[in-house]
Amino acid sequence: MARKNKTSLRDFQAYLSTRLTNAAQGQGAASWLAIEAGNEAWLVDLSDGGEIVQAPQLAPVPLTRPWFAGIANIRGNLYAVADFSLFRGGTPIPHHSSARLLLIGARHGSNAALLVSRMLGLKNPENFVAEAPQADDPPWCTQRYRDTQGKVWRKLSVRELLADREFMNIGV
Hints:
Elements: H1 9-24, E1 32-37, E2 40-45, H2 46-49, E3 51-54, E4 68-74, E5 77-83, H3 84-87, E6 100-103, E7 112-116, E8 118-123, E9 128-131, E10 141-147, E11 152-156, H4 158-163, H5 165-168
Parallel strand pairs: 2-11, 5-7
Antiparallel strand pairs: 1-2, 1-8, 3-6, 4-5, 6-7, 9-10, 10-11
């Protein structure tokens, strides 16, 4: 029986960190970070991806919108966490072993994080075909793509998401 090659989480994070650093410096092959939030698949440029951490215990914040999941303490820094599925009108993301925080704001001067269902790894842009934009896509959804299996993916512009009034207005 063939033994499957497994990568430890630490090795994957080190590899991803190197790829993120190279992407931020404009080096290396183009690739996207793939995430799943509820029933939607999203692509994020590696240079915008930030750090990925396992979803920690979140401190709730009263009088906020339902999609605002709370505050996370990541190595002494506080991050405002949005449940990306709930923000998109989907179902809340359960806090299980696959849930992750994508720390998206550091490059743009904001301690913001997205709670996502799971990470789907790195994707090569050459394996996707651009589709026509949909009228109901928000401005921070810059493009739709279809992969070779026919699955629809949306491309997230972190800069535009962080500039979106709806996303930044967490109060009720």
